[in-house]
């Protein structure tokens, strides 16, 4: 236990007395407050300085018991930009109780700040703060509170009343409980302390273990018993039951496993036609020593390797993101870790232990006899090789260089191997084993690469360089085809390529609907390279430049000149096309180490987007200067993320005017708002009367509307931007923008979906900002649409009862 002393003399008050909801409602953590009567902030206990911002208005300490404490002098003092404050310590410095941390001029701060009352907040979990009597005058150094560690999860379990609860439910998910549903079950249990098992027949498994759940072999239509023991057993069991009853995030009606997997012929995993030459991929396992040097050292090495691969998976995007989520769950699987620990304790090396643990798990999955579940063995093999490579310090994935029109043949293909391939030269894939729902099949389909699986061992004997026709649409592979077969396939392939080429060529023309209505098709960008690809794809401008790409994966923030130079290169690459630059959108799921912030219980609802920019006006000013210096005014549009109302917009509008004056920019520069919150959507008309344009970020708008965290596997299946509730909010944005004489666009993921285009246009959207690859096809769809028909479809979609119903309506309209 650590005793906290008053950091300065003043009036000791409870946190509720702070006139700021963020502190008063303990959004940042528990604590207390002092209204000071002196200008010296002292350390309330011994510890290490974690951070001091440039404005020197606050300091974060890590105490000797591990608790982290934020001391924030006054309210809204960050806006002073350091005026009146002088830091006496730096990050990493050791301090004793009573050491001076910050000196400040009380008169200067009192005149400029909202209030001088200073919150002292416990910023991390695992600790409890006990406050002494408040509403009294205290002297610096007087005892005011104590901080102690809370009980561990294990202690809580043992001390709590042992509640037991069970439920039987039927699994209706399309393919039963395979890797992604298993990962979602494990994720759903993270908030609970109860021990939960899933039982099927005479077998039972730890519900927190993806590997153990796969070993049950639970298929669609099976009944499972969910049993929980612990203080929150009922709530934990109900959470898993509801997840299972909702379909476990798997789309589509339940169907039995396709019998084609068990047939002698190949199975389509990704549709399409390919003509090319065979290349055999044969990967070998790296040798690892059987015996370890020291158990503690081997355990530490394994922990480091697991952490490394987990970190690498964190950067996955698109189709790879959900697969990465399942792989992260495997890396953190308690049963895999336990099995590896047993091997290490027996004297084995970390590499040998991890290979043995994954091998045991793979054997358990094979023992189920379920062909669909056996596709998950490839995921275990993939992670085995990646972790072993990390332990040995060798490249994790080795794949051959591909010549144009390569058809890759392998026993099986791992997700990491696919991601390492040069897909520009990859015409098709054929594997002897595998299945149509494997993770690599998902990746191939996302990349548009035709793929056949379960083709049998015979394909491994095909000589390299042999001509092949791979027709995944009819699940056939023709080796060394006759001239007439090759000619017929070539003609079909040419027709498909002509269609894509026609779309690509026409994509460079302005997009107009069949009735002449103009719809702008822009691109979302995250780099200079993206800008070049967008122009090549026919983008008419950039609807979203994610400036955070400049801030991530580095130790310090980019300076003004680096930002200016990058923005200038992107603007030049786009030519005279409009460039909408979104201001810094970090925080939430995109933290950076050089902008330390207090622990947030719910980062998605925390200090992110424009909120962080308003809290750090120095960063906002610097970025606005870089944008205005780098992008010509006629081309430049600026967009603010995470706006809730005009209170978020007006301060930035004022700051932009100041920066324009500083730089002598007299031409008007548009400042728009990204509509990502339901609040902003409902106030769209009001916002549009002052903002120059509105652009909807459907990803965040959907998660906030449906109260489902898009980064949480346990609820991510609920997220669909075509949900009628989301569409009704988009309708409000369209109406509000039109009434104010502004334009409204969509720059979220929904804009890239051609199925959504007629509905969005019918709701009043006149600009769609999509991925570069989607632009030709999106323009081709839009050119066939009629505005009146789109409006009628949109109204029917808003009156639908589910996203599935909306999608059915859209498919019917585009048929």
Q: Can you tell me about this structure?
A:
It is a single chain. Helix 16 (528-537) runs parallel beside helix 17, helix 17 (560-574) packs parallel to helix 19 and helix 27 (787-798) runs antiparallel to helix 28 (803-814). The chain is globular, with a radius of gyration of 29 Å. The longest helix is centred in the middle third of the chain and has 24 residues, at 483-506. Helix 20 (646-663) links the parallel strand 29 (636-640) and strand 30 (670-675). The chain starts with a strand and ends with a helix. With 815 residues, the chain is α/β, with parallel strands linked by helices. It has 28 helices and 33 strands. The chain is 37% helix and 20% strand. The strands form 6 sheets. Strands 9-5-6-7-11-3-2-13 form an 8-stranded antiparallel β-sheet, with no helix packed on it.
